[in-house]
Amino acid sequence: MISRGRSVRSGSAHANAVPSVSRRPSAAASGVRPELHVVQQPASKRASMTDGLTRLVVWTRARSTSLFHIVAAAVFLAATLFGALVLRTQMVQNSFEAATVQSNINTLSQDVEEDQAKLDALESSLPSKAEEMGMTLQQGTLSIDLNGYKPDGKDAQ
Known about the structure:
Layout: H1 27-30, H2 45-62, H3 67-132, H4 153-156
């Protein structure tokens, strides 16, 4: 790092010398010690709050901006912060619900795929099971004409 101290190029030895006289007055020379006093804390918090409010009112009177404008701006900022907090909370809640719904959709999709695989396996084994039971494939089509149907006497009642 570059030092910003005395320069070697200086031609005068006295230009860079430290003065022999200190800038602080010495205690021995003056003989008088500075006077100290105790700073009092306000008696109650209410008193300090009223003092702060009084200082705010005095400060606003010294400015061209009225107290109403400052209070309105503070209320607006507080309402904006509260609105942002509520909006963020709602967005997090919606995100959580969307993640839950997506998880349920994935689970149901897996269940559907498993059931579809079982159905495909059953459909592929259907012809062999039908042959084991002695069933044969139908030869041609079969149709029933109900226009000429007459019920028996037993079935009419």
